[in-house]
Amino acid sequence: MGGPRGGFWERNLPAVRAFALAADAGAALEAVAGDEDVTGNSYRFSKECVRYLTEHLAAEYLPRGIRVTSVSPGPVATPILDDFKRDHGVAKVEGAGALLGRFGEPEDIARVVAFLLSDSAGWVNGADIRVDGGLTAYRTVREAAGA
After folding, report:
1. Would the keyword Oxidoreductase turn up in this protein's UniProt record (predicted)?
2. In the predicted model, is pLDDT for residue 1 greater than 60?
3. Same structural domain for residues 109 and 45?
């Protein structure tokens, strides 16, 4: 769920929960107005909301036998990659590709989704599956080490 307990969304659970479970867009925006953790990194905050909703909905639907999972891809060689370069910086995105040895391919993500839809994943529930070549793990460990 985005790293060990105590990570971003756990520290900011009230804001994540208020935003993710708001009745409408206005209430969602009001819930986080002035919150620097949100306004300073809305992309990360949106990812954390998806992760929280994955757990929330998995818990809600568990008695009905409905599984809920989410997939969080890393940089994938699709047309949206140029948007990421613009929004996150060319150097950062290109650096991620160099570190990983390549950008992901749509098939990398599709294989994971196919697995999650299969009977083999019947015990996977309430999980966000990072399909990013290890990029998040690398960044989390470096951040924890103060690098």
Report:
1. yes
2. no
3. no
Find the domain containing 22 and state its range: 1-65
Say yes or no: 87 and 128 in one domain. yes
Question: Of 49, 65, 81, which residue sits at a domain end?
Answer: 65
Catalytic site residues? 43
Q: Are 32 and 15 in contact (CB under 8 A)?
A: yes
- Alpha carbon distance 117, 121 (integer Å): 7
Q: In terms of pTM, does the model score above 0.85?
A: no
Say what the pLDDT of residue 7 is: 56
Residues 25 and 73: their CA atoms lie apart, in Å, by 25
- The three-state DSSP-derived secondary structure of 70-83 is EEEECCECCCCHHH
- The 3-state secondary structure of 100-119, one letter per residue: HCCCECHHHHHHHHHHHHCH
Q: In this predicted model, what pLDDT tens digit does every residue of 103-124 receive, in sequence order?
A: 999 999 999 999 999 999 999 9
